[in-house]
Amino acid sequence: MALENDLERAGGCLIEHRQVVPPTIHRIDGAVPMTEEWIVETHDLVKKYGEHLALDGINLAVRPGATGLLGPNGAGKSTLLKTILGLIALTSGGGKVLGHDIATEGAKIRQRIGYMPEYDCLIPEMEAIHQVRYAGELLGMNSISAVQRAHEVLEYVGLRDQRYRTVSTFSTGMEQATKLACSLIHDPDLLLCDEPTNGLDSNARGFMLDTLFQVVKQGGRSIIMSSHLMDDVERICDRMLMIHKGQVIAQGRIEDLKAIDREIEISVWGGASRIEEKLKDMGQSVRRTGRVMRITRIDDSTYGTIIKAAAETSVQIRKMEDYEPSLEDLFIVIMDRLGYSVKSSKDLLGGNTPTMDHAAQLGRKVA
Ligand SMILES: Nc1ncnc2c1ncn2[C@@H]1O[C@H](COP(=O)(O)OP(=O)(O)O)[C@@H](O)[C@H]1O
Ligand SMILES: [Mg+2]
Predict the structure, then answer these.
(1) 141 CB neighbour count, 10 Å cutoff
(2) Ligand with minimal distance to 80 CA
């Protein structure tokens, strides 16, 4: 019993079943792999709630694969996902999802999309197996195939032994896993996951991310996943889409976007402030933390400039290498270019209001 409680606290029974989870979630017989070049294309998508502008002219071109949807609270992430689902009426603009029109073909889109909403959507008094079966029936599956598939997807998300428990007895990790099972019941080509790791501890979060990764990599599906955690997106997504105040501020392959600001990292001994000042006098952009500093790499001559600065200030360089930026670094650069002073993504994505240095720059597109 104690062990079971521990496993639940760890976000599920999920961990216990890791070895027996099948390596892939089977495609339903006859499912045709996606052929679309763009899974989502939109033009000037506008959504107003009354006078409030939630989406302000969104232009997207999303390729198949795993795309992270990033942005602060209130940026419009959930609204955008519901728009892609064809669930909410647009104010203006339009687009296509998997080749279907957002405005007029919502039902067709939903046949091919699995949606894991941000907030509670489960019926507490229902057993997990019936909750998932019911999700399939709502999408038009007959009862027999919906039940068969419900067993398969619940096992896949690590809830095999909890199938007959009511959802009200579940931990947050198990609820999230049930939501994922509901979204996979009809074998969708595209998964939309709204903050799938929200409220999960690190074990449950790891399992959820691993499962989503498998769903995409082994099943040939695509995913658009919103998150306020850079690590989550970096772990499973090769592309990202960043929105802010209802506008796209960056989109594309994460590797390509990182190339917008290459840096050289040096570690120095004796006189870090001196060499920092010298480099700045020489027109270099420097970010310093103690004895480690990163200098924007303009071209190959930047290495020579750094060595010259060290010689002229009698500072020893202990290490010099090209810096491999993380998604976190990319986020800070993008926000910096928009005029925001943020030290970490948590300043902004955690829901705090950042300070703006140059309000006039707001709205400038990075990619
Ligand atoms: N149903 C609604 N009615 C009115 N305003 C809404 C509604 N849903 C969202 N909003 C507003 O639209 C903006 C975008 O919300 P949302 O898409 O939920 O952002 P995010 O998911 O990025 O936090 C927010 O300012 C929010 O308050
Ligand atoms: Mg949201």
Answers:
(1) 20
(2) 1
Is the pLDDT at 367 greater than 60? The verdict is: no
Atom of ligand 1 nearest to the CA of 71: 22
Report how far ligand 1's centroid is from the alpha carbon of 47 (Å): 10
Ligand 1 pocket: which of 52, 56, 87, 243 to mutate (most atoms within 8 A of CB): 52
Q: Is 351 in the pocket of ligand 1 (CB under 6 A)?
A: no
221-264 confidence digits (pLDDT tens): 899 999 888 889 989 999 999 998 999 988 989 888 887 778 89
Q: Nearest Cα to 18, choosing from 207, 176, 186?
A: 207
3-state SS string for 61-77 = EECCCEEEEECCCCCCH
Cα–Cα distances in angstroms (integers) from residue 134 to residues 25, 154, 162, 177, 182, in the given order: 19, 13, 17, 16, 9
99: left (phi over 0), alpha (psi -120 to 50) or beta: left
Helical packing angle, 172-184 and 202-219, nearest 10°: 10
Neighbours of ion ligand 2 (CB under 5 A): 77-78, 118
